[in-house]
Amino acid sequence: MSNALRAQASLFDGIAFLTLVMTSIAVIFVSLSGYGAMQNTIINRAHITNYLQNSFKTIYYVDASTLSAVTCNDEPYYCDSESACRANTNDCTMGCDKLTTWTGISVAELIKRDMRDYNQTTGTGLDDKFGLASAPGKLAARCAFKEIFQPFSTAGYSYMVDFKKISGQNAVQVPQLGTKMITNNKDVTSCDQTLGKEKLVVNAPFKVFKCINATPPQCEGQDFIMTACVWPTRVTATAAAS
Questions:
Q1: Is residue 96 within 8 Å of 71, Cβ to Cβ?
Q2: Is 66 within 8 Å of 101 (Cβ atoms)?
C-alpha cells in the first residue's frame, strides 16, 4: 500500500473516531439532560400534589368568617354577576361578605352542613342551604379555594374542586347548584373531564353525618370523596373521562 493510501486511511480512521466520540458525548449529554428534566418534573408534581393534599387539611382550620374580605379582584368569573363586573368593576362582588356572621365555624363544617340534605334522587347538593335554612357551604368553599389556589391561578393554571357520593361501587358527583362552581374555569364542571396529560388530581375522604329527629336521635355517616385538580389553563376541556 502506498504512503498516500496509508495517509488517506489514517485520515479516514481519525475522522471516524472523532465522529464516534462526538456522537457518544452528545448521547450522554442528551440522556443526562432528559433525566434531569424528568426528575425536575417529578419533583414539581410531588410538590403540587403535596400542596393539594394540604389544601384539604386547611379548610378544617380556617374560620369561615375570616373569608368575608375575599373579593373578585376584578376577575369577572368569580363575581356574582359576570356581565355586570365586565361592564363596571364597582359591581365585581363575590358574596364572601355574607360569611361575616359564621364565626367559630370552619369551612369544612359549613360545607358539611350544606351537604347534609344531599339527596341523589332530587338532585339537591351544594346549594348554600340546609333544607330551608342558610348554610353557605359552597360559597365558603369558593372563597376559601380562591385564596388557597391563588398561586396556581397566578401561574396560569386552572383548578376545580368537586365532591362525589359513594354509592356501592360507584361514585356519583354532587351537583353544585347555581351558575358558579368551585373553580376558576367556567368551561369545566368536573375533575373527571379530559384536561390533558399535565392534569393533577388528589382525592380525600369526606364524611358527612346526617341526623333525623327521633328518640333517641338517629345519625348515619355518608361517605363522600373530595377531589381537587389543577391543569394548565391553555388546555381546553373536551370530553368526560370514561
A1: yes
A2: no
Task: Give CA–CA dist 178/128, Å, rounded.
Answer: 10
Q: Which of 53-57, 83-87, 107-111, 161-165 has the lowest mean pLDDT?
A: 83-87
Residue 118 has pLDDT above 90, yes or no: no
pLDDT at 41: 57
Cβ-count burial of 232 within 10 angstroms (0-12 exposed, 13-18 middle, 19+ buried)?
A: middle
Q: Tell me the C-alpha to C-alpha distance, in Å, between residue 13 and each of 7, 9, 10, 23.
A: 10, 6, 5, 15
Distance in angstroms (rounded) separating the CA atoms of residues 202 and 160: 11
CA distances from 20 to 24, 29, 32, 210 (A): 6, 14, 18, 72
Asked if 241 and 201 touch (Cβ cutoff 8 Å), the reply is: no
> Contact 143/131 with Cβ under 8 angstroms?
no
123, burial (CB in 10 Å: exposed 0-12, middle 13-18, buried 19+)? exposed
- pLDDT at residue 170, rounded to an integer: 85
Closest CA relative to residue 54, chosen from 66, 62, 64, 65: 62
Q: Output the pLDDT for position 63.
A: 94
> In whole angstroms, what is the distance from residue 68 CA to residue 87 CA?
24
* pTM summary value: 0.76
Q: In what order do the strands lie in the sheet with 170-173?
A: 170-173, 157-167, 218-232, 200-212
Share of the chain above pLDDT 90, in %: 28
CA angle 176, 187, 150 (to 5 degrees): 80
Q: 126 - beta bridge partners? A: 176
